[in-house]
Amino acid sequence: MAISAADVNKLRQMTGAGMMDCKKALTEAGGDFEAAIDILRKAGQKVAAKRADNATTEGVVVVAINADGSNGKLVALACETEPVSKVADFNELAAALLASAVATDAADKDALLASTLADGRNAQEAMVELTGKIGEKITIAGYENVTAEKVVSYIHSNNKIGVLVAFNNVQGTDIQEVGKDIAMQITAMKPVALDKDGVDSATIEREIEIGRDQARQEGKPEAMLEKIAIGRLEKFYKESTLLNQQFVKDGSINIKQLLEQTQKGLTISTFKRVALA
Q: Which of 22, 35, 53, 71 has the most crowded Cβ, counting Cβ within 10 A?
């Protein structure tokens, strides 16, 4: 049957798909709009599968903090190229996913993907549909859901790095400014853990081995290698765990001391850093 330009345009308006894709889908569906939409969605699934191995290093990070500041949610929606990360449809999907995370209090990424968006679409299906429309792989590169007495967020200026910091024992103190400073430090300094107790055993062993090798290459006696490596591990803790890092804005104190100066007993229970790279 003949497919009119008006029908093609109508389907294009309904789905956002390209004109030729819409015409092909309508022709295949014999003019049935619902069937044509299904065909386009299937085409999107095929595109998604075809691009499954493509790197997604671009995108946007979006964050929502609830009214009393006790919960923060972060969604990192990734794509393949920077121009797509600036497309309205892509950013609207990121906002819709974040809104769904807030509405459902999604516990993890799988729960978010299974959630229903405000427009009634399944989150995973909406991502596949947009993949079909723009021709790039789209994925949730990161999702975090953090609860504490106060949660402070920070989004880096390029919208590709987001941080959530969870504070406890706030005791009514306004910690927004210091919280943002700490979140910015996490963005820049990339701590691997909150304190040395949070560093995994594999990382510790790797750092000790590196320390041994460096000492050996420096000509240190074999009997001293282990002691030297342990000493360098302590330096690693100081540089790479948040509470032990020097405060960037004041090198005379570390983050743990900054917390104590801000409010006696103030603590950080966790932090989350998500970066698209």
A: 22
